[in-house]
Structure formats: C-alpha cells, structure tokens
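Intended use. Records like the one below are meant for learning the mapping from a protein sequence to its folded structure. Do not use them to infer anything beyond what is encoded.
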Amino acid sequence: MPLKYQTGFGNEFATEAIEGALPIGQNSPQRVAYGLYAEQISGTAFTAPRSHNRRSWTYRIRPSAMHDEFKQMNHERMVNDFMQIPATPNQLRWDPLPMPVEKTDFIDGLTTMAGTGSPDTQIGCAIYLYAANGDMSRYFYSADGEFLIVPQQGCLLIKTEFGFLEVAPQEIALIPRGIRFQVMLPEGSARGYVCENFGSAFRLPDLGVIGSNGLANPRDFEIPVAQYENKEGDFELVAKFSGHLWSAKIGHSPLDVVAWHGNYAPCKYDLRRFNTIGSISYDHPDPSLFLVFQSQSDTPGVDAIDFVIFPPRWLAAENTFRPPWFHRNIAAEFMGLIHGVYDAKAEGFLPGGSSLHNCMAGHGPDAQTFAKASQIDTSCPQKVTDSLAFMFETRTILRPTLFAMKSPLRQVNYADCWQSLAKNFTSER
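Structure written out for the chain above:
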C-alpha cells in the first residue's frame, strides 16, 4: 500500500495514527490518551525567533530515555576528524563506491569522503558516500547534525519516529538532528550520498527578485503521517555523538510515536519538481540560481552549506558559452552525479562518483566539452536531458579524509582532462 504524506516545508503539522491520540489545547496534559507519554523534541534553542524555531511534540508508547547505557563502537570509514592529513589545493575526483560483498546495512555502508568544522561546535559538515545491501535491524540517530540523503541507486524505505518515507533516486530525504530512524532496502541494495549538516538547519532560500514562486516550492515537500511500531524484543540503538558511534541495548522499537504535532520532522522532496530558473538572453547563470537548500551562517548572504542541483533544463542564451565556465571560487564544491552525463564533463564523472574543487582551485569544462561548446549554434535552444547532478557547497575548506586520498577510487590523473586545452591566442582579430 502506498505511503501517505502531508505536504509543505516548515509548516505546523498534526497527525495521529489512532483517532484521539493528539491532545487538544494542551501539549502535555496530566494523562495522555491511550496511556501514551508526551515528549517534546527541540531542534533549536527554546528562545529562537518564532520564524526559525523548530520543535515537535510526540505522544509515544515509551519515553526515549528508556534504553541501556551507551558504549562506544568502532567504524573505521565513518570519521569526523578532518585534520588527519593536510588539505590539498588539487582538483580531486573519485569513481563510485562498489557494492559491498558482505552483508552491509546503511550505517556500516557510510564512508566519509570529506568534511569541515566539528560536530562539537555545531559548525561545518561531513560528506559521506554510502553503499549497502542489507536492511537495518538496529535503529540510529545523529546528535551531531541533520542527514540530507541523496539516493543514486536503489530505493530506500526510511522508517522514522514520525512515520515512513519511501525515497527513490532523483528524490532526497532530510532527517533532522536527533530523530531516530531505520533504513530498509526494498530493492536489495542501494548507493548514494549524504551531507551531515552540523550547523543551522537547512531551509528554503528567499526568492528575492524571482518573486513568490520558483526553485523548490514548499508544497512539493512531503512529510510522513504518524505510523508507529509497537514491538518488544532485544534491539540495538546506535547514536552518533561528537563524531563517534555509540551502541545501547533497547527493549522496544523507538519508532513508537502514535501521534505528533509541530514543525520539526523528516521530509522528502522529488528533485524533478524543482522549478529551474535560467537565462533567456545571454550568459550562463551562477549556480546559486539552482539552490534547493541553504544552511545559513552568522554572515548575512554567506551560507555555511548550500545544496544545489543541475537538473534537465533548456539552454537558450545566445552568443554565450553555455556550459559552466572556467572559474575559481571562494567556496569549496563537492559534486555528485545521480544519473546521466554532466553537461560540463565529457567522461570520467560517473553516476555515483564525486569530485572536490576546494577554495580557489581552478576548474571547468574539459578540452572535449570546451571544443564542442565553442562551435555550437547558439541561435538554437539546446535541452539538457536525462542528467541530474548536484553540489554540496561550503564557505570553508573541505578536507578530504585519509580514505578518500588513498582509495583506489580516486582518479589520480583527473587534472589531465585540462592539459590538452589548446593555446588559441592570437594578437590579430
């Protein structure tokens, strides 16, 4: 049976799996209906401005405090220490993660590729690839940051405290900090990307001169309705705290919320619903025009993290080099490809692969793409089809992990794609 969703982003929602489970007019009455416990989950400071305050009230079978003592775990490829090796100014690119041979769930399948800042200071992010071939029997939450999950291959069924989400490639899921969840693989295996945002929660950008519509529209976001598990047994709860994983025994499913209301909840979004804005006269627009989410920093107009996509679209600019031009950027750009061929690269950038261009690292189209784009007839519109790429962009340097730098997935000759660019200069017009 297809899952049901509510729609909107940042709205106040109210949903109950059993009629009458939500209290009326009072968040924590002396006795909650059906013998439930009232518990508030706050994703922002209590005193945050109303427009930025995020919290939800849950009415659950057992309080979340009911579990055994946490004990630290090992996870060699999931690290948040970004000072292991010096950051490099070189352009970097990687092949996709291979599917694991042994049974691997979503958590064990996470591999840190790069990051910045620290979860302790609630600044920065960690960027992961994941490859998994097994359902999670345990439950997980991150106290360090929210999880922006970008599937590339294989559907995910994400069971959360607030309800269930089915998320396929070309869709994304956003799981808020601290929310407990479990990932199942309906197709048996899955691969993709995750950005764990340590800083301020992702939000939709203001539209400014674009007006009241465009980019990612709030009504296209889907939020789960209440759906609970009433299970007892020997389960495991895994917590990510201060960059490390911790495990505790728990005697029941923590996904036992029978009803909830508030605006702090997981959601999914279909990237194909993004309303792309572009140039219809001349010049290729800045990538900020493709912004889905932003995590704001303490500097107005400068985001801590941006999530940007490059979807199918018409290119209609005349007398213009249409692909992304050569550029150096104060921001660090970590790119991934969900499917198809990215319009600024001829080869080597594969679905499931990734690239990193750090602060002021020169990059742009390879020689083959440059030659083709320089000769195209721009009096005819051109449509980018069957392609979806994205970018996690940060204002601070992204430091690749030791695994990322030493991995055989790294394309050590990546910079060769620019070496055959010809010297076309002539002093005559």
